[in-house]
Queue: 3 jobs
Job 1
Amino acid sequence: MNYEFALDKKALISLIAGSVLIAVLLFLAGLIVGRQWTVVVSAEAASKSTDEERAALPKEPVLHEEDASAPNTGTPRSIKPKVTAPQEPAAAATQASAAATQPPASQPAGDVRIIESVTDNAAQPDEAATEPEYVTVQVGVFLDQKEASHLLQQIEARGYAPTFFSGRDAEARQWYAVRIGVYSDKQQATNAAANFTKQEKLKAVVRPLEAL
């Protein structure tokens, strides 16, 4: 059995118009879905970037390498105690006089006279006593000044006399530290930091008085 199909001009135009309409609708649907997908991906990327930035925030300041000639950028609010360095002990110097021996009376004229001398080396003076390096116990350091002030108030409420110190680290970030006490003996400061940690359950470290 044979079937014959014939399309007149009107049916052909309708078919073409329907195909164009379907294509336009599919294009619009794809465009809408694509925009929504782009928004979702952008939101996820932004959220991931924010989490990474928060994780990358420093917990401790990046300290400068210790260099005695480097200027100190921190300005402590506590006043460094004035201590006079001990005076140099007087150097004890001893010197033996030269003993000259005279030639015998029978020594012919023109001979060289021999003089024997012994000189003791003078005692070397002791090195000048240098002023001790002062240290302190640091109980907290923050990038936010409000957080440092809040900790300072808490420490004061517990009966301590904390001081406030601010300075920049090696990456030029401004830090705010809360500290307790001034010590010329580092071992005493270490013991004080250990006792504070044991009693108050807060981490304490020994730091130079005028540096982070």
Note: The radius of gyration is 43 Å.
Job 2
Amino acid sequence: MKTVTAIVAEDELVLRDELCGHLQALWPELTIAGLASNGIEALRLLERHRLDIAFLDIEMPGLSGLEVARQCQGHVVFVTAYDAHTRVVTRDGEALIRRSPKELQDELDPACFWPIHRSTIVNANAIAGVTRDIRGRVAVKLKSRAEKLPVSEAHEHLFKQM
């Protein structure tokens, strides 16, 4: 199989690590040639590497993903953590919705649905377990999903008793 080369530019470390992990798990032929935490770093990576794909955060310090994309010769995939682009995952599948997590949270029972990150709400009854890595970061494992979901520091208090 042909190796595909990419860069990942995302200013939020947790999201960048999560995206890279998903890409590597789902696309073994993909080689991530570099990581950038801002638009200027992304532009430098574009200059150094011949890329097939650039995964670019839309809003980054320095230059936006849109500005970096203008310099990209390969394919561009925009990624964003903005609330206006939020994903609903159920046991049976997933769908994109155009409602913010805050709007969704306001309609859900807070005893059952817990925010664990600014862009993630989980059904507490679907939690299989909670782990802490060597850096002390908390993650949630759901009963029906393989991946672990990161918990932001602001929401770690929900899991003190687990």
Note: The radius of gyration is 17 Å.
Job 3
Amino acid sequence: MTLGPLDYTVIGFAGNNFNGRIAPEIAKVVDAGIVRIVDLVFVTKNAAGDVDIVELDNISDSKFESFAPLLSNLMGLLTPEDIGQIADDLPPDCSALIILWENKWAEKIKAAILDSDGFLVAHTRIQPEALAALNDELEAAGLIA
């Protein structure tokens, strides 16, 4: 199987206040064929720093039930080392949802590149917050209105 480009996203929840309400919005981009969920892991760190790792594909906790429709294509590609590093970086009394996404939208572009004897030279993502900060600086300097 050929995969499209993969990205992972870590979404934190202060105070371990995860409720699962983001699942329907994630499901919308999955249902639209934009992305496919390749792996989904939940990490909790209590105030003492103790970590609990939950693989969502075999959990019956009600706060995760909204993710059930998203679990059919999981491949378990996140390694224990990947998850451990994210858990280490997580502040105490915080939880995180780790999502490994396949960018389905890029599959045909990837195929066209390969069919043209092309190859990817670079790819990076610019976060919207960085663009907003740059925009604020440019406005303050009077360079844009």
Note: The two ends are 49 Å apart (CA to CA).
